[in-house]
């Protein structure tokens, strides 16, 4: 499915300030031993401060429960309402491979399996070798959770998902999807509801 990277943009944030939560940053990245595939703690000094999950001031016209992905700044926001949001660092798609505009959460999955799209298989040989799918687990590129983005009842084939490459957060190197650290995508997964609006902002060329 082809989606222009210049898709219709709606509802740019009206203002953004840096007033952050006082929750210790390391708490957000503690070990998660009860996961199906347990996750180790991530040392906070391994995550750039601007990419760490935190609650921030965020004034927007979007209602609480909306996810706003600001692709140029490599940030995603879960809107809490009353001028607040949870901010996450994200990795985004390479130029020409990104979703833009409005979508909604069509479904969610924990430790999802992954099958490369037909377009991915056409582009790269390594994806053709995975045409039969890859089971969920620590080596799966979708990581601990996947949030599937839909439009008009149809799967866009774009996801917000975890990653087994945390060094890619803050970069534009994926095949179009929005990737998060596993600890962060678990947090967002618990907050966002099926049917929630997702707004993806792309740079205006």
Account of the protein in words:
The strands form two sheets. This protein has a ten-stranded mixed beta sheet with strand order 1-2-5-4-3-12-7-8-9-11, covered by helices on one side. The protein has a single domain (about 30-200), classed as L,D-transpeptidase catalytic domain-like, CATH 2.40.440. The relative contact order is 0.24. Strand 8 and strand 9 form a beta hairpin. It is mostly beta strands. It is globular and about 45 Å long. The protein has helices spanning about 120-125, 125-130, 180-190; strands spanning about 15-20, 55-60, 65-70, 75-80, 85-90, 90-95, 100-110, 145-150, 155-160, 170-175, 180, 195-200.
């Amino acid at each position: 499915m082809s989606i222009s990277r210049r898709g219709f943009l709606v509802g740019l944030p009206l203002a953004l300030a840096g007033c952050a939560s006082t929750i210790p940053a390391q708490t957000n990245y503690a070990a998660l031993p009860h996961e199906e595939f347990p996750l180790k703690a991530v040392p906070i000094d391994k995550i750039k401060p601007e990419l760490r999950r935190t609650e921030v001031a965020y004034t927007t016209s979007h209602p609480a429960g909306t996810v706003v992905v600001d692709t140029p700044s490599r940030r995603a926001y879960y809107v809490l309402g009353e001028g607040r949001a949870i901010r996450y660092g994200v990795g985004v798609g390479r130029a020409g491979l990104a979703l833009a505009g409005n979508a909604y959460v069509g479904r969610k999955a924990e430790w999802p399996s992954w099958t490369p799209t037909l377009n991915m298989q056409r582009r790269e040989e390594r994806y053709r070798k995975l045409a039969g799918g890859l089971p969920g687990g620590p080596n799966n590129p979708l990581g601990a959770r996947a949030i599937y983005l839909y439009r008009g009842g149809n799967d866009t084939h774009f996801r917000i998902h975890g990653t087994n490459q945390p060094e890619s957060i803050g970069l534009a190197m994926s095949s179009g999807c929005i990737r998060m650290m596993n600890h962060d995508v678990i947090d967002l997964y618990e907050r966002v509801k099926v049917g929630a609006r997702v707004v993806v902002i792309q740079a205006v060329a």
